[in-house]
Please model this.
Amino acid sequence: MKRKPQVLAVAGTLLITLLGGAPGAAGDTAAARDPDPMPGGRNARVLVFHGQDAPADRTRAGVEAVRTLGAEGPRSERFQVEDTDDPTVFDPLGLRDYNAIVLLSTDGTTLNERQESALENYVRSGGGFVGIHDAANALPDSDWFTGLVGARPENADATTPETGVVEVGDRAHPATAGLPLEWTRRDVWFDWQENPSGDVHTVARLRERGPDAAGDGWDHPVSWCRDYDGGRSFYTGMGGTAGTFTENNFRKHLRGALLWTSRLTRADCQATITGNYAAERLTEPNAPGELDQIGEPHGLDIADDGRVFYIGRGGEGPNAPVVTDWNDPDVGLGPGTLHVYDPGTGEVSIAATLEVFGNKGGGGELVKNEEGLLGIALDPDFADNQRVYLHWTPHDRIDRVNRVAERRVSRFTFDEASGTLDLASEEVLLSWPVQIHSCCHAGGGMDFDSDGNLYIATGDNNSSGFSDGYSGNNPQPSFAGISFADARRTAGNTNNLNGKILRIHPEDDGTYTIPEGNLFTGEEEGGGKTRPEIYVMGVRNPARIAIDPETDWLYAGWVGPDAGAPSTTWGPAKYDTFAVITQAGNRGWPYCMGNAQPYRDRNLPDPTQPLGWYDCDNPRNESPNNDGLVDLPPVSRNNIWYSPQGGAPDYPRDADGIPTYREQDQTLLLPWLTGGGQATMNGPLYRYDEDTATDVAWPRYWDGKWFVGDFYDGTQPRHAVVMDPGSAPGGGLPVHAESLDAIIPVGEGGIRNLMDWKFAPDGSLYVLDYGGGFFNADARSALWRVTYEGGPATPLPADLARP
Model:
């Protein structure tokens, strides 16, 4: 994607309004001037300028709309409107009387050097500019004006209206607050010579109109604003038809732009300008042979005082020896580390080292292992009780003969005096067996809701091999009688805690209770067939989960299988998945993925031969390795999925609801997503807190946005998305997405392998970077912090227009 270089340094605030105005009388420098100020108003004045050859119908409609808007609302928000087509209005002294200039076009009009200079000086003196549609074609030889308007059209001569969907990304700006999340409308749409995203603050984007549209790709800004060269600038690519100005939603959009540019209200037009963010690496590479700064990165949590507690799974440096021989008592022995970063001092300390199983290095499915120290959550009352919850696999509990380990969730007490975790204080809340003969999928993420319920994400404890990268449902491979390639034994099993998101309520005495509303009670079919701890079943490898502190909704992501392409025999390609989860349910693995796209069953005596397709609405677990219910809860639709082919592949379906799974038939419902070597890494849902936010806090613009990413950098997802709360619980797709790649930098010198990310109470974002390689602590492994430096909303209170 092309990025437009910033033409001028940003200073102050500027608003450009592009509107059509009624033709002025010949020689009249301000035709149709309101003779009297509005009683009780601020006497704000707005000038609408249009070229002498501008389309008359659109011009009349634009001027009438602005006049009507100027007379609406409380008196403190009203303004007088004047319009003209006479360029002599661009006079250095005359422009001083206007709060904002609205520009529709310069068709048939040429500004001379003195008039252009007057416009520049007006803006530099704090003036507001609103550009509408054709205004982007004005002053084509002026680099300064290009910076003011933000972008130039690629198809400047476009005149044919098309129906498009506007995605409203800014829910706080007065020009977009209250507009529909998805706004379907008909207009003349511009494509841009250079994409302005990152140089301007985009408040709305255009969803591409279809495969035949020229378009700018998925990131197609349509309205944006900017503090520019001392003034305020707002541009909208809408307004290409006369009918636009009669639409209620567009008039709301325009009125908000006018209020901000006229200094009648404040707004943040800096929130997505990438130069306003700073990413800082906080930890140094470890000293040789030590883990003094960071272990093998695997998760973090943040205390109310801002300290960051982050864990290392179990790997050591890339050259450290590992033991893979099962006859050796130290097989897989590694250090599970807990480090603490103190933002007050900038210092890192190591708080604990636990002896974990999981340090077996890389290699094949029967060598490597993903167990270890997997998750951390601080107690909601950590400031008072210093309790730390760890999700881990202790080495001293492994059974080397049968190759089974114990996974557990333990509660420890952090000793503030020594800055260390009191290992003797361990209370084991919950434990369950996991097979460790074969890799992979341990999961690990944990989080608390507002009721003190603890959510625990567990992987399906299943091998990635033996099923050609499709459904992990091969019943045959086993060791010591335990299947390791059949996820129906784990994720699809109602009586197994692997491949789940558990929900329990820890009690003070070290036990736990079961909250109401979990998926099972434990008493189904007389008992012994279900586990009441299960909140969500059917997830493959949920490394990260997050609870929205405002709604208590669960946001989760999990890694999919390995098939690089869909198969008409076996089903979909690998889908990595994100989901908004508002109630207990079944997310489908290993029966269905995405929006209820089924896999093919396989069974004995020959797992290479397909049987029937799974029924996503009535799934049945008929595996010989199942000890739970046969009839399972219906599969819930997920919100985001992506494969190597792209984001949210969907296919035509036959009369039985089975997709064709032919790649040439696919529709990509989320074109902003790309896959490949993919590993989903769910992030937080940001909530701006005015009471705790500091001058480095990410601004209110991001409030309510869900951060979704991938372990890998490059073309993998690293986005903030907007969900419609009405459709999200039922599997609704995101209604807006924007890339975070330039803010959370990717590539060499940036954050290469996203492992965990959370917002601190001060509103800054902490990111744990795996760094490189696998199963080790790399020299690039690091804790990062991303802060906002854009400053407050504009204009400042002292600069608001006064009566």
Observations:
- The radius of gyration is 29 Å.
